[in-house]
Structures are given as structure tokens and as C-alpha cells.
Amino acid sequence: MERDQRDNCSTTGTSCSFTDLHCSHSYNVTVQALGAECNSNLSSHAEICTVPCSPQNVSASLVCANNSALISWVGNPGSVSYNVGCPGSRWRF
Fold first, then answer.
1. Distance of CA 79 to the CA centre of its chain
2. Are the C-beta atoms of residues 27 and 5 closer than 8 Å to each other?
3. pLDDT tens-digit profile of 5-55?
4. Percentages (nearest 5) of helix, strand, coil residues in the chain
5. Are 41 and 58 found together in one domain?
6. Three-class SS state of 29
7. Are residues 23 and 37 in the same domain?
8. Cα dihedral sign for 63, 66, 67, 73?
9. 40 with 66, same domain?
10. What is the pLDDT of residue 87?
């Protein structure tokens, strides 16, 4: 579902699923009961916040003087911390 786009789901059950949500976005959802003659008022809204987007422009530099590495990246809104790891080694998150 595109940001600021309206979407709906009709069901006879008590749950619906929305796909293609964008990372680092929040969505407000409401529910309305449909009757044979009349419909209910809209429910209060519930907010859904999706996972943060992946960091961009990740780079790594070897620091030979002390046998270490400097890893840097561009963060994204909604990220509060990061895990950095090196797959295939003992240094993992």
C-alpha cells in the first residue's frame, strides 16, 4: 500500500491483511461493521508503524595501525540503534 493511499479489505471474519507496506512509515487503520440495513460508525484508529528501512551506503575501512575496521552508513528515520556484524566469523550480532 502506498503512503497516504487509501486501501480497504472486506471480510466476513475478524482480521484483514495489507501487503506492500513501506518501511519507516506509519499507517492509521479503522474498522467499520456492515449490517444488512445499516453500518456502524468507524472504530477508533489503530496506528501501525513498519520496520525501519535498511541503512544505505554501507562502507568498511581497514585500520592497519591497530588491526581494526571502521564501518559507516547512512541511517534512516525510525532507527534507534544498529547491529553490525561480520557473517562467517566469530564477530556477529
1. 10
2. no
3. 678 888 999 999 988 888 998 899 999 999 999 999 999 999 999 999 999
4. 5, 25, 70
5. no
6. strand
7. yes
8. negative
9. no
10. 74
Domain carrying residue 69:
53-93
Q: Which three cell numbers stand for residue 81?
A: 540503534
Domain identity same for 87 and 67: yes
Residue 80 grid coordinates: 534507534
Cell numbers representing residue 84 in the block:
553490525
Residue whose C-alpha cell is 556484524: 85
Q: Which of 3, 5, 1 has its CA nearest to residue 26? A: 3
Taking the C-alpha atoms of residue 6 and residue 42, their distance in angstroms, rounded to an integer, is: 15
The pTM score is: 0.62
Q: Give the Cα separation of 49 and 22 in Å (integer).
A: 10
